[in-house]
Amino acid sequence: MSSKLEAIGIAKRYGEALALEPTDLAVQAGEFLTLLGPSGSGKTTLLQMISGLVAPSAGRIEIDGRDVTHVEPGKRGIGMVFQSYALFPHMSVWDNVAYGLRMRRKSRDEVRAAVDSALAMVRMTDYAKRFPKELSGGQQQRIALARCFAYRPSVILLDEPLGALDKKLREHMQGEIRRLHKELGATFVYVTHDQDEALTLSDRICLMNQARIEQVGTPADLYDRPATRFAAGFIGHSNLLEGALDDTRGASGEPILLAAGGRIPLPMNAMNAMNTMKAANGKGAASAARHTLLVRPEAPRLVEPRSGFVDGTIADVVFFGSDTRVQLAMNDGSELTVRCERSLSPRIGDKVGLVWDPYRTTLLHS
């Protein structure tokens, strides 16, 4: 399948400062791709080069196989939604949405039909005669979306469009954006530093760090199979257990990691993958190194002391409504967080053991 949008060797420097190292990224038609990462990771720089607002230092941008690297923003067929809304305060809602169509010299009938359709899509038809100052933040964001959707661009770029909204309204607008994406069938490229937002909205996530792409995959890929320690720590809550391989194997022949004061069985295929990675990088065998095991908080369950993989003492219990988070002080001095059902009643000071399915853990490559 050919890509709708493709960045090929795209890079950006500001003098000696590297904003984005040479990067390749392909986005399929109709896909919702999120650029996720901390501040300074390069995600907004990449989005701005796709839009044409920033010229790349190297590489090229293609849309539908056409090189648009040096095409001005207004002629790329791209829609853009900003965090600041950028509405004209002296224009009504209707005129704000119509503005881009009029600039493209659409006929009066075309403008009327497109604006009415866009306002209906974002459920703001009854607000057509109001001015931006008469709208809430969420309503203004809907108008910004409608203005972009009105001329039906095939690629829509969204630069942290929900960042200024409160938590409840942001969650509501996430649902609206997902609905609109499905209705339009357009290709969305969305920038955020909010991991929950990325997991909620995306078909795929492009995780960025220090001016480069760290990992690209579905939300489930990044959560369940992070490729690096950074990916594991940035997506979701992570228990990272440091240890070395035992020279002996478990009862079923599985490799054993000595970590958190216990003997932790690993998936049977974990060491094959690690040795392959080490060999590709020209390093020694996996058994000769220390390793990091990712255990998500929902994987372990509490058992009697000395009957699990590791033992610890309950240091804190926090009620979260749908579940309870238990903070454990492990026997080697490390800490580990476990998510428990509300029916359990763990108490601070209790000695407990932990057990989990080894195949719900990930041995990290770096």
Automatic annotation (TrEMBL):
Matches recorded under InterPro entries: AAA+_ATPase (IPR003593), ABC_SmlMolc_Importer (IPR050093), ABC_transporter-like_ATP-bd (IPR003439), ABC_transporter-like_CS (IPR017871), Mo/tungstate-bd_C_term_dom (IPR008995), P-loop_NTPase (IPR027417), Transp-assoc_OB_typ2 (IPR013611)
Signal peptide: none
Single annotated GO MF: ATP binding
Superkingdom, taxonomy of origin: Bacteria
GO biological process: quaternary ammonium group transport
Stored SMART domains: AAA
UniProt domain ABC transporter: residue ranges: 5-235
This protein's name: ABC transporter related
